[in-house]
C-alpha cells in the first residue's frame, strides 16, 4: 500500500511533526519559566525590592561578607557581633551554597558589565531558580512517564503555592535553590539508575554535593535513594545497573558531602546517614553472591545464599544498632527525631516546637498550598503502582514518605509539593491522552460480544462526552491557576518587614515601623552597642541595624536563649542583674497593642517562659504567669509575676495614656488581646499620673525610642549607680558662682 | 528398633558432614578452575586491580586502628578513595563483561571513558579533602 512516495511523505511529516513538537516544547517551557518568575514578583511591585522575613537577612549579611571580603574570608568567618558574648563560627554552621550561588551570579554579571547590587541579586535569586526547578521537574517527569506529563509538571510546580511560599522574590533562603538541586539530583539519579552509566551517577553525585551545600534537607535524598534500592532488592528487581549507579553515587557523593564544613564527618557518624551506609554494604554482599551464584550454578547453594545474605543483613543491622546504642554513632538529632515521635520536641526541646513552622499541618494547609493537585495525586500514585517499573517505584516511595512528613510539620509541605506536582501531572496527562484523542481506546478481550465497530451515533456521543470531559478538566486547571495567583498575592507576598493595612476607603496604609526602629538604632547608638531582644529579631537587627545581638534565629545555644527568656520573664531587679552580666545596652520589644498586630512579644511570651523554665525550673514557673482561673490575660486579673516582668513593663509602658483617638473610650485598650490592660501607670520613678489600680515604676531602664505605631519599643539600660549611693545632683556651689 | 535407627542416624550424620565439607571444597576448587579458564584476560586484569585496591584499603584501616585517627579527614579521604576505586573497578568489570552485554547499551570504550571521568572527579575531591 505504501509506495516510496508515501513513504517519503510519511518520513517528512514525521520529521516535521517532531520539529513542531520540539518547537512547542521550547515555547511552553520558556513561558513556564517566565510565568514562574513573574508570579513571584508581587512583593517587589507592591513594596520594593527588599529582603523579607528573618532568616534571609542573615543569608544576605553573609553574602555581603562574601562579596566584600572574598571566599576564604567568608568560609573562615567568626562573627563576634552575634550571640554576644559567645560569637558564632559562621563558616562551620552555615550551608554555603546559597551565598556562593548569589555571589557567583553577582560577580558574573559585574564581570559582563552589568553592575547589579548584591541586594538585587539576592532578592531575585529565588525566582530565577524557580524557572530552573520547573525545567528539572520537566526532565524528571519526562524520564519517568512522558513528555506531556513533563510539561504539566513543570507548569504545576512553577505556580504551586507550596513552593512559591519559600521562593518568592525577596525570600532569600536556602529552599529557593535547594528545591532545584533536589529535583535535578533526582532526575540524574533516575537517569543513572535506568542506564547504569558511571557518568550519570557521577553527575548525580556532583548534583548531590550542590544540594548538600544548599540545604539541611539533603538528609531526605540520602535516605530516599537507599530506600529505593532496598525496595528494589526486596521485590527482586535489583540488577547490575542499579549496583553501578548506587555505589558510584554513594561513594563519590558522601566524599563530596564531607567537604562542606558544616557537614564535616556526619556522613559516617550520625544515624541519619547510616541507612545509606547499610544499604551500600548490603548491595556489595548481594552483588558478590549474585556473581558466585552465576558462576557456580543456580541449584546447588541457592537456599544457602539466601540464608547467608539474610544473616549478613541481620548482622549489619545489629552492628549499626550496637554502634548507635554505644554512642559511637550519634543518634537521630532532635530535629529529625521529632518527625517520628511528634510529642518529643514539646517536652525536651521546646525551641523546636515553638517555631510556628514546625506545627502539625492542618488539612486546610494542604488544600491552600496545593488545591486540586492534592486531590488528584493519589490517583497518580495508583497509576504508578499499576504501571510500575524500576524507576516508578522511586515515585511511589517518594510520594508516600513526603505525604507522611508533610502531615507532621507545616514546613515540610515544601518537600511534598514537587512530588504532588509530578503525580498530578501524570494523572492529567493520562486523562487528556484518553479523552482528547479521537481514536477509540483498544477494546478489551471481554467485550468481544459487543460490536467491534462503533456506529455513527455511538461515535458522535463518544465525541460529545470526550469534549465535555476535556472542557471540565480545562476549567479545573483554570481554577487552579486562579487560586494559585490569589494565594500568592494575598498570603505569601508579605515581606514581614513592612506591614500593610487597608484603610476604610480601600487605600493601602504602609507600616514601616520595623525599619524605622532599626534605622534609629543604626544612627543613634554607638557601634558596639548590644541589643537584647527575643531571638526572632536577631537576624534583622544584625542585618538592618548592624548592632551586636545576644540571641538570633540560629537558636544554636538553648541556654543563652533561656537566659534572655529569664530576663524577660523576671522582675526588673533580677532582669537588671542578668543584663549587667551580659553587658546589654538596649532592650527591644515588639508590641502590637496599638494596631492589633498579633505577632508581638506578649503573645510569644509564654514560649519565653517555657524555654526559661526548661533551664531554670526553680526560678521560673509557667503557672505563675496565668490568672487564678488558669487563663493568660493582660488585664487587671493578671498575676503580679506577670505584671512586674520586664516584658509586661516594657510593652505597656505609658500605654495607659493611649486612647486610640476616642476620648471617651477606654484608655490603654490593647487591640491585640482585645482588653484593657491591668497596670496602666508604668512610669519612671517620680512621675505619677491618674490614680489607677497599681502603680509600678521603671527603675533600671528608660525609654529610648518608640516607633510611630508603637510596634517596636527600644529601651536603654541605665548604667549602674555609683556604689557609694550618691545621686548625681547638678549643684552649683555658691562659692564659685560668678 | 529405636537403637538401630539412632545408630544409623549417628552413623549417617558424620558421613553427611564430611560430604558437605568435601562438597564445599570441590565447589571452591571448581570455581577457581572455571575462573582461570573462562574469564577473559581483560577481566582478570581488572580483578587484580580490585584485589590491589582492596588490600590497600585494608592496610589503611588497620593502620588507622593502630595509630589513631588524628588527621581524620586524611584517613577518610585515603580510605574512601580506596573504597571508591574498588567500587568503580567493579562497575567497570560489570560493564566490560560480555555476559552482561544485554544490560549495558554502550561500547567498552564508553564504559572506560566513564570510569576515567569518575576517577577524575574522585581524585579532585580527595585532593581537596585530604587537607
From TrEMBL, chain A:
The STT3/PglB/AglB core domain is annotated at 530-587
Identify its membrane topology class: Multi-pass membrane protein
List the GO molecular function terms: dolichyl-diphosphooligosaccharide-protein glycotransferase activity; metal ion binding
Spell out the InterPro entries in the cross-references: Oligo_trans_STT3, STT3-PglB_core, STT3_N
Self-association or partners: how does it assemble?
A: Component of the oligosaccharyltransferase (OST) complex. There are 2 OST complexes, OST-A and OST-B, which contain STT3A or STT3B as catalytic subunit, respectively. OST-A and OST-B contain common core subunits RPN1, RPN2, OST48, OST4, DAD1 and TMEM258, and OST-B contains either MAGT1 or TUSC3 as specific accessory subunit.
Which cofactor does the UniProt annotation name? Mn(2+); Mg(2+)
Task: Please tell me the species this chain comes from.
Answer: Oikopleura dioica
Biological or metabolic pathway of the protein: Protein modification; protein glycosylation
Report the subcellular localization.
Endoplasmic reticulum membrane
Task: Report domain Oligosaccharyl transferase STT3 N-terminal positions.
Answer: 24-424
One GO term under biological process is: post-translational protein modification
* Protein name (Swiss-Prot/TrEMBL): Dolichyl-diphosphooligosaccharide--protein glycosyltransferase subunit STT3B
Which spans are transmembrane here? Answer: 22-45, 82-104, 116-138, 144-165, 186-211, 217-236, 248-268, 274-292, 304-330, 363-383, 395-428, 465-486
Query: What EC number(s) does its UniProt record assign?
Result: 2.4.99.18
Q: Which UniProt keywords apply?
A: Endoplasmic reticulum, Glycoprotein, Glycosyltransferase, Magnesium, Manganese, Membrane, Metal-binding, Transferase, Transmembrane, Transmembrane helix
UniProtKB/TrEMBL annotation, chain B:
Name the pathway it acts in: Protein modification; protein glycosylation
Instruction: Tell me the leader sequence span.
Output: none
Question: Is Transmembrane among the key words of this record?
Answer: yes
**Which residue windows are transmembrane per the record?**
49-69, 75-92, 112-130
Q: Localized where? A: Endoplasmic reticulum membrane
Superkingdom to which the source organism belongs: Eukaryota
| Record membrane topology | Multi-pass membrane protein
Hydrolase as a keyword? no
Q: What is its main location?
A: endoplasmic reticulum
Supply the alphabetized keyword list.
Endoplasmic reticulum, Membrane, Transmembrane, Transmembrane helix
Quaternary structure note: Component of the oligosaccharyltransferase (OST) complex.
Which family is this protein grouped under? Answer: Belongs to the DAD/OST2 family.
The role this protein plays is:
Subunit of the oligosaccharyl transferase (OST) complex that catalyzes the initial transfer of a defined glycan (Glc(3)Man(9)GlcNAc(2) in eukaryotes) from the lipid carrier dolichol-pyrophosphate to an asparagine residue within an Asn-X-Ser/Thr consensus motif in nascent polypeptide chains, the first step in protein N-glycosylation. N-glycosylation occurs cotranslationally and the complex associates with the Sec61 complex at the channel-forming translocon complex that mediates protein translocation across the endoplasmic reticulum (ER). All subunits are required for a maximal enzyme activity.
- What is this protein identified as? Dolichyl-diphosphooligosaccharide--protein glycosyltransferase subunit DAD1
Q: Please tell me the species this chain comes from.
A: Oikopleura dioica
Output the lineage of the source organism. Answer: Eukaryota, Metazoa, Chordata, Tunicata, Appendicularia
